[in-house]
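Appendix B: complex inputs.
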Amino acid sequence: MSHHIVEVRDLHFAYPDGTEALQSVSFRITHGEAVALIGANGAGKSTLLLHLNGYLTPTRGEVRIGEMPLVRETAAAARRAVGMVFQDPDDQLFMPTVFEDVAFGPLNAGLPAAEVERHVTSALERVGMAHLKDRPPYKLSAGEKRAVAIATVLAMSPDVLVMDEPSSHLDPRGRRRLIGLLQSFEHTKIIATHDLELVVEVCSRVIVLDDGRVVAEGPTVELLNDEALMLAHGLERPHSLRHLHPH
Amino acid sequence: MGLGQWIEIGRLDELGRLDTPVHRLDARAKVITTLVFIVVVMSFPRYEVSALMPFFLYPIALIALGRIPAGCILRKILLAAPFALVIGMFNPLLDHQTAAKVGVWNISGGWLSFASIMLRFVLTVSAALTLIACTGIHRLGAGLERMCAPRVFVVQLLFLYRYLFVVADEGTRMMRSLELRSAGPRSLRLRVYGSLVGHLLLRSMDRADRVYRAMVARGFSGEIRVLRQTSLRWTDWAFTGGWTAFFVAARIWNLADGIGRLFTKGAS
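Resulting structure:
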Protein backbone atom coordinates (compact mmCIF):
# COMPACT_ATOMS: atom_id res chain seq x y z
CA MET A 1 0.00 0.00 0.00
CA SER A 2 1.37 3.38 -0.92
CA HIS A 3 1.35 6.13 1.69
CA HIS A 4 2.73 8.73 -0.69
CA ILE A 5 -0.59 10.46 -1.23
CA VAL A 6 -1.82 13.12 1.17
CA GLU A 7 -5.39 14.23 0.87
CA VAL A 8 -7.20 16.81 2.95
CA ARG A 9 -10.98 17.05 2.58
CA ASP A 10 -13.05 19.96 3.86
CA LEU A 11 -10.87 20.40 6.92
CA HIS A 12 -12.13 22.68 9.68
CA PHE A 13 -10.28 23.36 12.88
CA ALA A 14 -11.00 25.67 15.80
CA TYR A 15 -8.71 26.08 18.81
CA PRO A 16 -10.30 25.54 22.23
CA ASP A 17 -10.59 29.32 22.69
CA GLY A 18 -12.85 29.46 19.65
CA THR A 19 -10.36 30.83 17.11
CA GLU A 20 -11.21 29.41 13.71
CA ALA A 21 -7.76 28.45 12.46
CA LEU A 22 -8.77 26.47 9.38
CA GLN A 23 -11.93 26.60 7.35
CA SER A 24 -12.88 24.20 4.64
CA VAL A 25 -9.36 23.38 3.50
CA SER A 26 -9.12 20.78 0.74
CA PHE A 27 -6.24 19.61 -1.44
CA ARG A 28 -4.66 16.44 -2.77
CA ILE A 29 -0.95 15.87 -3.09
CA THR A 30 0.16 12.87 -5.09
CA HIS A 31 3.21 10.66 -5.20
CA GLY A 32 6.53 12.47 -5.51
CA GLU A 33 5.07 15.94 -5.74
CA ALA A 34 6.74 18.89 -4.03
CA VAL A 35 4.14 21.36 -2.83
CA ALA A 36 4.68 24.66 -1.06
CA LEU A 37 2.26 25.98 1.51
CA ILE A 38 2.56 29.75 1.57
CA GLY A 39 0.71 32.57 3.25
CA ALA A 40 1.15 35.43 5.69
CA ASN A 41 1.94 34.95 9.38
CA GLY A 42 -1.02 33.44 11.16
CA ALA A 43 -2.61 32.17 7.95
CA GLY A 44 -2.85 28.66 9.41
CA LYS A 45 0.15 26.95 7.82
CA SER A 46 1.59 25.43 10.99
CA THR A 47 -1.86 24.44 12.24
CA LEU A 48 -2.51 22.67 8.97
CA LEU A 49 0.81 20.81 9.15
CA LEU A 50 0.01 19.54 12.64
CA HIS A 51 -3.05 17.83 11.21
CA LEU A 52 -0.98 15.86 8.73
CA ASN A 53 0.46 13.54 11.37
CA GLY A 54 -2.54 13.48 13.63
CA TYR A 55 -1.20 15.76 16.36
CA LEU A 56 -4.31 17.90 16.01
CA THR A 57 -7.69 16.41 15.24
CA PRO A 58 -9.97 18.30 12.85
CA THR A 59 -13.27 19.60 14.17
CA ARG A 60 -14.75 18.69 10.78
CA GLY A 61 -13.50 17.01 7.63
CA GLU A 62 -10.71 14.47 7.28
CA VAL A 63 -7.10 13.86 6.38
CA ARG A 64 -6.13 10.79 4.40
CA ILE A 65 -2.61 9.44 4.18
CA GLY A 66 -2.36 7.00 1.30
CA GLU A 67 -5.60 5.08 1.33
CA MET A 68 -6.30 5.36 5.03
CA PRO A 69 -8.18 8.05 6.88
CA LEU A 70 -6.16 9.60 9.68
CA VAL A 71 -7.94 8.85 12.94
CA ARG A 72 -6.74 8.00 16.43
CA GLU A 73 -6.21 4.34 15.60
CA THR A 74 -4.14 5.01 12.51
CA ALA A 75 -2.10 7.88 13.95
CA ALA A 76 0.91 5.68 14.74
CA ALA A 77 1.10 4.38 11.16
CA ALA A 78 0.59 7.88 9.80
CA ARG A 79 3.47 9.20 11.89
CA ARG A 80 5.76 6.60 10.37
CA ALA A 81 4.60 7.53 6.88
CA VAL A 82 4.73 11.30 7.37
CA GLY A 83 8.05 12.62 8.63
CA MET A 84 7.76 16.07 10.14
CA VAL A 85 10.61 18.57 10.41
CA PHE A 86 9.62 21.31 12.84
CA GLN A 87 10.43 24.97 12.62
CA ASP A 88 12.86 25.10 15.54
CA PRO A 89 15.45 22.31 15.45
CA ASP A 90 16.02 22.84 19.18
CA ASP A 91 12.55 21.44 19.79
CA GLN A 92 13.30 18.42 17.69
CA LEU A 93 16.69 17.46 19.09
CA PHE A 94 16.37 16.30 22.67
CA MET A 95 18.71 13.35 23.12
CA PRO A 96 22.28 13.61 24.47
CA THR A 97 24.07 12.91 21.19
CA VAL A 98 23.29 13.34 17.51
CA PHE A 99 23.41 9.59 16.99
CA GLU A 100 20.94 8.85 19.77
CA ASP A 101 18.68 11.61 18.52
CA VAL A 102 18.54 10.16 15.03
CA ALA A 103 18.05 6.69 16.55
CA PHE A 104 15.06 7.83 18.63
CA GLY A 105 12.47 7.31 15.87
CA PRO A 106 13.74 3.94 14.59
CA LEU A 107 13.99 2.62 18.18
CA ASN A 108 10.40 3.65 18.84
CA ALA A 109 9.39 1.82 15.70
CA GLY A 110 10.82 -1.29 17.35
CA LEU A 111 13.60 -1.98 14.83
CA PRO A 112 16.40 -4.37 15.90
CA ALA A 113 19.68 -2.77 16.99
CA ALA A 114 21.69 -3.54 13.83
CA GLU A 115 18.92 -2.17 11.64
CA VAL A 116 18.72 1.00 13.75
CA GLU A 117 22.46 1.59 13.35
CA ARG A 118 22.18 1.16 9.61
CA HIS A 119 19.26 3.58 9.31
CA VAL A 120 20.95 6.17 11.48
CA THR A 121 24.25 6.00 9.63
CA SER A 122 22.66 6.24 6.21
CA ALA A 123 20.39 9.14 7.27
CA LEU A 124 23.34 11.07 8.69
CA GLU A 125 25.41 10.39 5.57
CA ARG A 126 22.53 11.52 3.41
CA VAL A 127 22.55 14.98 5.01
CA GLY A 128 26.36 15.04 5.24
CA MET A 129 26.51 15.05 9.04
CA ALA A 130 27.98 11.61 9.78
CA HIS A 131 31.09 13.19 11.33
CA LEU A 132 28.97 14.81 14.05
CA LYS A 133 27.36 11.66 15.36
CA ASP A 134 28.88 11.74 18.85
CA ARG A 135 28.41 15.47 19.44
CA PRO A 136 25.67 16.87 21.68
CA PRO A 137 23.02 18.48 19.44
CA TYR A 138 22.78 21.74 21.37
CA LYS A 139 26.38 22.54 20.47
CA LEU A 140 25.88 22.42 16.71
CA SER A 141 25.50 25.43 14.41
CA ALA A 142 22.05 26.34 13.12
CA GLY A 143 22.77 24.76 9.73
CA GLU A 144 24.06 21.55 11.29
CA LYS A 145 21.07 21.39 13.62
CA ARG A 146 18.71 21.73 10.70
CA ALA A 147 20.48 18.99 8.77
CA VAL A 148 20.43 16.67 11.80
CA ALA A 149 16.74 17.42 12.38
CA ILE A 150 16.10 16.33 8.79
CA ALA A 151 18.18 13.19 9.40
CA THR A 152 16.08 12.30 12.47
CA VAL A 153 13.10 12.18 10.16
CA LEU A 154 14.84 10.46 7.23
CA ALA A 155 15.97 7.66 9.57
CA MET A 156 12.33 6.65 9.92
CA SER A 157 12.11 6.14 6.13
CA PRO A 158 8.97 8.22 5.70
CA ASP A 159 7.05 8.38 2.42
CA VAL A 160 6.09 12.02 2.87
CA LEU A 161 8.29 14.82 4.21
CA VAL A 162 6.54 17.73 5.88
CA MET A 163 8.63 20.78 6.74
CA ASP A 164 7.83 23.97 8.59
CA GLU A 165 10.09 26.87 7.56
CA PRO A 166 13.11 24.71 6.68
CA SER A 167 15.29 27.67 5.63
CA SER A 168 14.76 29.90 8.66
CA HIS A 169 17.91 30.92 10.59
CA LEU A 170 20.19 29.53 7.89
CA ASP A 171 23.10 31.43 6.37
CA PRO A 172 23.20 31.58 2.53
CA ARG A 173 25.52 28.59 2.28
CA GLY A 174 23.41 26.53 4.66
CA ARG A 175 20.31 27.50 2.74
CA ARG A 176 21.93 26.55 -0.56
CA ARG A 177 22.88 23.14 0.85
CA LEU A 178 19.34 22.67 2.10
CA ILE A 179 17.87 23.44 -1.31
CA GLY A 180 20.23 20.93 -2.91
CA LEU A 181 19.23 18.36 -0.32
CA LEU A 182 15.51 18.95 -0.82
CA GLN A 183 15.89 18.68 -4.59
CA SER A 184 17.62 15.33 -4.16
CA PHE A 185 14.78 13.77 -2.14
CA GLU A 186 12.37 11.63 -4.07
CA HIS A 187 9.78 11.80 -1.25
CA THR A 188 6.48 13.58 -1.55
CA LYS A 189 7.22 16.97 0.01
CA ILE A 190 5.02 19.54 1.71
CA ILE A 191 6.90 22.69 2.69
CA ALA A 192 5.39 25.59 4.61
CA THR A 193 7.61 28.63 4.14
CA HIS A 194 8.00 32.36 3.57
CA ASP A 195 11.11 31.75 1.49
CA LEU A 196 9.54 32.12 -1.94
CA GLU A 197 12.86 31.81 -3.77
CA LEU A 198 13.23 28.36 -2.22
CA VAL A 199 9.72 27.56 -3.41
CA VAL A 200 10.68 28.49 -6.96
CA GLU A 201 13.64 26.12 -6.85
CA VAL A 202 12.13 23.17 -5.00
CA CYS A 203 8.35 23.06 -5.49
CA SER A 204 6.29 22.52 -8.59
CA ARG A 205 2.98 23.47 -7.05
CA VAL A 206 1.83 26.09 -4.57
CA ILE A 207 -1.10 26.33 -2.19
CA VAL A 208 -1.82 29.83 -0.86
CA LEU A 209 -3.49 30.05 2.55
CA ASP A 210 -5.04 33.17 3.98
CA ASP A 211 -7.01 33.39 7.18
CA GLY A 212 -7.45 29.63 7.37
CA ARG A 213 -8.71 29.18 3.81
CA VAL A 214 -7.12 28.03 0.57
CA VAL A 215 -7.29 31.13 -1.63
CA ALA A 216 -5.29 29.87 -4.59
CA GLU A 217 -3.66 26.70 -5.84
CA GLY A 218 -1.63 26.04 -8.95
CA PRO A 219 1.76 25.73 -10.66
CA THR A 220 4.50 27.61 -8.82
CA VAL A 221 5.69 29.99 -11.52
CA GLU A 222 2.21 30.93 -12.65
CA LEU A 223 0.95 31.72 -9.14
CA LEU A 224 4.03 33.47 -7.82
CA ASN A 225 4.13 35.65 -10.93
CA ASP A 226 0.65 36.96 -10.16
CA GLU A 227 1.70 40.15 -8.42
CA ALA A 228 -1.83 41.18 -7.41
CA LEU A 229 -2.51 37.80 -5.80
CA MET A 230 0.79 37.81 -3.95
CA LEU A 231 0.34 41.31 -2.54
CA ALA A 232 -3.28 40.67 -1.56
CA HIS A 233 -2.19 37.84 0.73
CA GLY A 234 0.83 39.36 2.40
CA LEU A 235 3.35 37.84 -0.03
CA GLU A 236 5.46 39.19 -2.89
CA ARG A 237 6.52 38.23 -6.36
CA PRO A 238 9.94 36.56 -6.10
CA HIS A 239 12.79 38.58 -7.49
CA SER A 240 14.07 35.73 -9.62
CA LEU A 241 10.79 35.58 -11.55
CA ARG A 242 10.96 39.27 -12.48
CA HIS A 243 13.85 38.64 -14.80
CA LEU A 244 13.30 36.52 -17.82
CA HIS A 245 17.05 36.21 -18.26
CA PRO A 246 19.36 35.34 -15.44
CA HIS A 247 21.84 38.06 -14.44
CA MET B 1 29.57 35.50 37.01
CA GLY B 2 25.97 34.75 36.10
CA LEU B 3 23.83 32.14 37.70
CA GLY B 4 23.90 30.07 34.53
CA GLN B 5 27.64 29.65 34.74
CA TRP B 6 27.34 28.50 38.33
CA ILE B 7 24.77 25.91 37.58
CA GLU B 8 26.36 24.94 34.23
CA ILE B 9 24.02 22.00 33.90
CA GLY B 10 25.38 21.21 30.46
CA ARG B 11 28.75 20.55 32.04
CA LEU B 12 27.61 17.45 33.91
CA ASP B 13 26.19 16.11 30.69
CA GLU B 14 29.49 16.59 28.89
CA LEU B 15 31.40 14.94 31.71
CA GLY B 16 29.00 12.01 31.51
CA ARG B 17 30.28 11.29 28.02
CA LEU B 18 33.95 10.93 28.99
CA ASP B 19 35.50 7.54 28.51
CA THR B 20 37.34 6.48 31.67
CA PRO B 21 37.38 3.24 33.68
CA VAL B 22 34.74 4.76 35.98
CA HIS B 23 32.53 5.81 33.08
CA ARG B 24 32.76 2.35 31.55
CA LEU B 25 31.30 0.73 34.66
CA ASP B 26 27.68 -0.31 34.39
CA ALA B 27 25.26 2.37 35.64
CA ARG B 28 23.61 -0.15 37.95
CA ALA B 29 26.86 -0.89 39.79
CA LYS B 30 27.39 2.82 40.41
CA VAL B 31 23.81 3.46 41.48
CA ILE B 32 23.86 0.65 44.03
CA THR B 33 27.27 1.65 45.39
CA THR B 34 26.14 5.26 45.75
CA LEU B 35 22.95 4.20 47.51
CA VAL B 36 24.88 2.02 49.96
CA PHE B 37 27.25 4.94 50.52
CA ILE B 38 24.41 7.35 51.31
CA VAL B 39 22.63 4.91 53.62
CA VAL B 40 25.81 4.13 55.55
CA VAL B 41 26.78 7.82 55.87
CA MET B 42 23.32 8.69 57.14
CA SER B 43 23.28 5.85 59.66
CA PHE B 44 25.97 7.35 61.93
CA PRO B 45 24.94 8.78 65.32
CA ARG B 46 24.42 12.53 65.26
CA TYR B 47 27.60 13.62 67.07
CA GLU B 48 29.86 11.59 64.82
CA VAL B 49 32.52 13.58 62.97
CA SER B 50 35.83 11.76 62.79
CA ALA B 51 34.42 8.42 61.63
CA LEU B 52 32.90 10.19 58.60
CA MET B 53 36.27 11.29 57.30
CA PRO B 54 37.30 8.00 55.60
CA PHE B 55 34.14 8.22 53.48
CA PHE B 56 35.61 11.12 51.52
CA LEU B 57 37.76 8.50 49.85
CA TYR B 58 34.81 7.39 47.69
CA PRO B 59 33.87 10.67 45.96
CA ILE B 60 37.53 11.69 45.74
CA ALA B 61 38.50 8.39 44.12
CA LEU B 62 35.67 8.69 41.62
CA ILE B 63 36.53 12.29 40.81
CA ALA B 64 40.18 11.39 40.30
CA LEU B 65 39.64 8.20 38.27
CA GLY B 66 36.76 9.70 36.31
CA ARG B 67 38.88 12.77 35.43
CA ILE B 68 36.13 15.07 36.69
CA PRO B 69 37.22 18.62 37.54
CA ALA B 70 36.74 18.94 41.30
CA GLY B 71 35.89 22.66 40.98
CA CYS B 72 32.78 21.83 38.99
CA ILE B 73 31.48 19.53 41.73
CA LEU B 74 32.51 21.96 44.51
CA ARG B 75 30.60 24.85 42.94
CA LYS B 76 27.44 22.78 42.82
CA ILE B 77 27.89 21.73 46.45
CA LEU B 78 28.21 25.39 47.43
CA LEU B 79 25.06 26.17 45.49
CA ALA B 80 23.10 23.61 47.52
CA ALA B 81 24.85 24.43 50.83
CA PRO B 82 22.27 26.98 52.07
CA PHE B 83 19.70 24.20 52.40
CA ALA B 84 21.92 22.15 54.70
CA LEU B 85 22.92 25.31 56.61
CA VAL B 86 19.30 26.10 57.37
CA ILE B 87 18.73 22.57 58.64
CA GLY B 88 21.79 22.60 60.89
CA MET B 89 22.09 26.19 62.04
CA PHE B 90 19.86 25.95 65.11
CA ASN B 91 21.77 23.06 66.65
CA PRO B 92 24.60 25.21 68.14
CA LEU B 93 21.98 27.59 69.59
CA LEU B 94 19.87 24.91 71.25
CA ASP B 95 22.38 22.29 72.34
CA HIS B 96 24.97 23.76 74.77
CA GLN B 97 26.07 20.59 76.48
CA THR B 98 29.78 19.94 76.22
CA ALA B 99 30.31 16.88 74.11
CA ALA B 100 34.04 16.98 73.43
CA LYS B 101 37.19 18.72 74.49
CA VAL B 102 39.98 19.89 72.20
CA GLY B 103 42.83 21.22 74.34
CA VAL B 104 41.29 23.91 76.51
CA TRP B 105 38.26 24.38 74.27
CA ASN B 106 34.93 22.89 75.19
CA ILE B 107 32.94 21.93 72.10
CA SER B 108 29.20 21.87 72.59
CA GLY B 109 27.06 19.07 71.22
CA GLY B 110 25.30 21.60 69.02
CA TRP B 111 28.42 22.53 67.12
CA LEU B 112 29.40 18.90 66.83
CA SER B 113 26.07 17.85 65.36
CA PHE B 114 26.15 20.90 63.09
CA ALA B 115 29.56 19.81 61.79
CA SER B 116 28.25 16.30 61.37
CA ILE B 117 25.26 17.51 59.33
CA MET B 118 27.48 19.61 57.07
CA LEU B 119 29.90 16.73 56.57
CA ARG B 120 27.13 14.32 55.66
CA PHE B 121 25.67 16.90 53.32
CA VAL B 122 28.98 17.37 51.50
CA LEU B 123 29.54 13.61 51.34
CA THR B 124 26.13 12.60 50.02
CA VAL B 125 25.74 15.50 47.57
CA SER B 126 29.23 15.03 46.16
CA ALA B 127 28.58 11.29 45.79
CA ALA B 128 25.32 11.93 43.94
CA LEU B 129 26.89 14.57 41.70
CA THR B 130 29.88 12.40 40.84
CA LEU B 131 27.48 9.57 40.08
CA ILE B 132 25.77 11.75 37.46
CA ALA B 133 29.07 13.16 36.18
CA CYS B 134 30.57 9.71 35.59
CA THR B 135 27.45 8.08 34.22
CA GLY B 136 25.41 10.63 32.27
CA ILE B 137 21.74 11.08 33.03
CA HIS B 138 20.52 8.94 30.15
CA ARG B 139 22.62 5.91 31.02
CA LEU B 140 21.58 6.47 34.61
CA GLY B 141 17.93 6.42 33.57
CA ALA B 142 18.41 3.26 31.52
CA GLY B 143 20.23 1.65 34.45
CA LEU B 144 17.43 2.54 36.84
CA GLU B 145 14.87 1.12 34.47
CA ARG B 146 16.77 -2.16 34.25
CA MET B 147 16.87 -2.25 38.03
CA CYS B 148 13.09 -2.35 37.85
CA ALA B 149 12.53 1.24 38.97
CA PRO B 150 9.01 2.26 37.85
CA ARG B 151 9.13 3.49 34.26
CA VAL B 152 6.97 6.50 35.04
CA PHE B 153 9.56 7.59 37.56
CA VAL B 154 12.47 7.14 35.14
CA VAL B 155 10.74 9.00 32.31
CA GLN B 156 9.84 11.82 34.71
CA LEU B 157 13.45 12.04 35.80
CA LEU B 158 14.72 12.24 32.22
CA PHE B 159 12.13 14.86 31.28
CA LEU B 160 12.85 16.90 34.36
CA TYR B 161 16.47 16.92 33.35
CA ARG B 162 15.79 17.70 29.72
CA TYR B 163 13.44 20.59 30.55
CA LEU B 164 15.93 22.02 33.00
CA PHE B 165 17.97 23.03 29.94
CA VAL B 166 14.89 24.39 28.24
CA VAL B 167 13.91 26.60 31.18
CA ALA B 168 17.49 27.70 31.79
CA ASP B 169 17.76 28.70 28.12
CA GLU B 170 14.56 30.70 28.18
CA GLY B 171 15.52 32.29 31.47
CA THR B 172 18.95 33.34 30.22
CA ARG B 173 17.44 34.96 27.14
CA MET B 174 14.84 36.84 29.18
CA MET B 175 17.42 38.08 31.68
CA ARG B 176 19.60 39.30 28.83
CA SER B 177 16.82 41.32 27.25
CA LEU B 178 15.84 42.65 30.66
CA GLU B 179 19.38 43.79 31.36
CA LEU B 180 19.61 45.46 27.97
CA ARG B 181 16.47 47.46 28.55
CA SER B 182 16.91 48.40 32.20
CA ALA B 183 18.76 51.63 32.87
CA GLY B 184 20.79 50.29 35.76
CA PRO B 185 20.80 47.68 38.45
CA ARG B 186 18.41 49.75 40.58
CA SER B 187 15.55 49.82 38.10
CA LEU B 188 14.50 46.22 38.83
CA ARG B 189 11.41 46.00 40.94
CA LEU B 190 9.61 43.07 42.43
CA ARG B 191 6.69 43.59 40.08
CA VAL B 192 8.97 43.24 37.07
CA TYR B 193 10.35 40.00 38.47
CA GLY B 194 6.85 38.69 39.02
CA SER B 195 5.92 39.25 35.42
CA LEU B 196 9.25 37.81 34.31
CA VAL B 197 8.76 34.58 36.21
CA GLY B 198 5.19 34.28 34.95
CA HIS B 199 6.37 34.69 31.37
CA LEU B 200 9.13 32.19 31.93
CA LEU B 201 6.60 29.62 33.10
CA LEU B 202 4.31 30.19 30.13
CA ARG B 203 7.14 30.14 27.61
CA SER B 204 8.59 26.99 29.10
CA MET B 205 5.22 25.30 28.91
CA ASP B 206 4.91 26.31 25.26
CA ARG B 207 8.30 24.94 24.47
CA ALA B 208 7.70 21.76 26.43
CA ASP B 209 4.62 21.30 24.30
CA ARG B 210 6.64 21.70 21.11
CA VAL B 211 9.29 19.24 22.28
CA TYR B 212 6.60 16.74 23.17
CA ARG B 213 5.02 17.27 19.75
CA ALA B 214 8.34 16.46 18.10
CA MET B 215 8.68 13.33 20.22
CA VAL B 216 5.20 12.15 19.35
CA ALA B 217 5.93 12.78 15.67
CA ARG B 218 8.74 10.28 15.96
CA GLY B 219 6.64 7.59 17.54
CA PHE B 220 7.22 8.28 21.25
CA SER B 221 4.79 6.24 23.31
CA GLY B 222 5.93 6.75 26.88
CA GLU B 223 9.00 4.56 26.76
CA ILE B 224 12.55 5.75 26.24
CA ARG B 225 14.56 3.12 24.46
CA VAL B 226 18.32 2.97 24.34
CA LEU B 227 20.47 1.27 21.79
CA ARG B 228 23.27 -0.29 23.80
CA GLN B 229 22.26 -2.65 26.56
CA THR B 230 25.34 -3.35 28.62
CA SER B 231 25.71 -6.44 30.75
CA LEU B 232 27.34 -6.63 34.15
CA ARG B 233 31.00 -7.64 34.02
CA TRP B 234 33.31 -8.74 36.81
CA THR B 235 34.68 -5.19 37.15
CA ASP B 236 31.17 -3.97 38.00
CA TRP B 237 30.76 -6.63 40.67
CA ALA B 238 34.24 -5.89 42.01
CA PHE B 239 33.50 -2.16 42.14
CA THR B 240 30.26 -2.56 44.08
CA GLY B 241 31.58 -5.37 46.29
CA GLY B 242 34.86 -3.65 47.13
CA TRP B 243 33.34 -0.31 48.02
CA THR B 244 30.50 -1.86 50.00
CA ALA B 245 33.04 -3.83 52.05
CA PHE B 246 34.96 -0.60 52.68
CA PHE B 247 31.80 1.31 53.72
CA VAL B 248 30.77 -1.45 56.12
CA ALA B 249 34.26 -1.61 57.61
CA ALA B 250 34.35 2.18 58.03
CA ARG B 251 30.93 2.02 59.68
CA ILE B 252 31.93 -0.62 62.20
CA TRP B 253 35.41 0.63 63.05
CA ASN B 254 36.36 4.30 63.28
CA LEU B 255 39.15 4.15 60.73
CA ALA B 256 40.27 7.77 61.21
CA ASP B 257 40.55 7.17 64.92
CA GLY B 258 42.38 3.91 64.34
CA ILE B 259 44.93 5.48 62.04
CA GLY B 260 45.39 8.34 64.49
CA ARG B 261 46.03 5.89 67.36
CA LEU B 262 48.47 3.95 65.22
CA PHE B 263 50.50 7.11 64.62
CA THR B 264 50.41 8.38 68.18
CA LYS B 265 51.39 4.94 69.44
CA GLY B 266 54.31 4.87 67.04
CA ALA B 267 55.38 8.33 68.26
CA SER B 268 55.19 7.60 71.98
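DSSP finds 13 helices and two strands in chain B.
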